[in-house]
Amino acid sequence: MKLSAQYKNNSSFSKSTKGFTLIEIIVVMAIIISLAGIGFGVFFQMNKTARENETQTILEAVSNAMIARSADISAEQRATVGIQTGFTFPNGNGSDGSTEDLVSYISGDFDGDGKTDEGAETKLPEVSPTKSGKNSYLDEDGRIIDSWNTPIRYTFPGVYHTEDDGFDLQSAGPDRTFDTDDDIILK
C-alpha cells in the first residue's frame, strides 16, 4: 500500500501539474492575429499616405521647375522644344507620354542629345536625362512618373487650370487608373 501511494504522488498526471488548455491557446492566437491585422492595416494606410504626399511633392517640383524655366527660355529654345508663338509651355495632350517634352524643357536639353545645353541650366535635377535610379522622376522611356511608377499626365492648355498659361499635372493615384476619385491633380 505504501508503494502505491508513493506512485500516485510521483505520477505525471497529478493535479498539481500546470499547463495551457486548448481554449487558452486559441484565445491567445486570436489576439495575436487581431493585433497583426490591425498593424498591417495601419502600415498600408501610412504607406499609401506617404506615396500620395511624395506624388504631390513631385507634381509641385515639376510645376515650379516649369515656371522657373518659363522665366529664362529664349525664343530659339522655345522653337526647338516646339512651343507655339504666344505660349509659355510646351503643348500637352494629357496622354501617358505627354511629359516627354517637359523633360527637355525642364532639364535644358533642348536639342535632345541627353545633355543640358550650353548656356542652359537644369531646373530640376530629378528629371535630367542623365539622372537614373531612386533619385530620378523618370522611367526608362523618359516620362515623368509618380511614386507608383505610373506616368504623370501633362495637359496644356489646362482643363483644371483655365487661366492664361494654365497647365495640369495629374497622377493616377494609388489605383493607377486615370479619371477616378483617387487621382492626384496639382491645383
Main sheet properties: 4 strands, antiparallel
Task: State the share of residues found in helices, binned by percent.
Answer: 25-40%
Distance from N terminus to C terminus (CA atoms, Å) equals 93 Å
Task: Tell me the structural class.
Answer: alpha+beta
Shape: elongated
Q: How many separate domains make up the residues?
A: 1
Q: How are the strands of the biggest sheet laid out side by side? A: 1-2-3-4
CATH class equals Alpha Beta
Which fold name corresponds to the CATH topology?
A: Glycoprotein, Type 4 Pilin
Low-confidence stretches: none
- The count of strands amounts to 4
SSE string: HHHEHEEE
- CATH architecture heading: 2-Layer Sandwich
Rg calc? 30 Å
Task: Count up the helices.
Answer: 4
**Integer average pLDDT:** 82
β-strand percent reads 5-15%
Q: How would you characterize this protein structure?
A:
By secondary structure, the chain is α+β, with helices and mostly antiparallel strands. The protein has one domain: Glycoprotein, Type 4 Pilin, CATH 3.30.700. The chain is built from four helices and four strands. The N and C termini lie far apart (93 Å).
Helix-strand layout with pairing:
Blueprint: H1 2-9, H2 22-72, H3 75-81, E1 92-93, H4 100-107, E2 153-156, E3 168-171, E4 184-185
Antiparallel strand pairs: 1-2, 2-3, 3-4
What's the quick description here?
This protein is α+β, with helices and mostly antiparallel strands and about 190 residues long. The protein has helices at about 1-10, 20-70, 75-80, 100-105, and strands at about 90-95, 155, 170, 185.
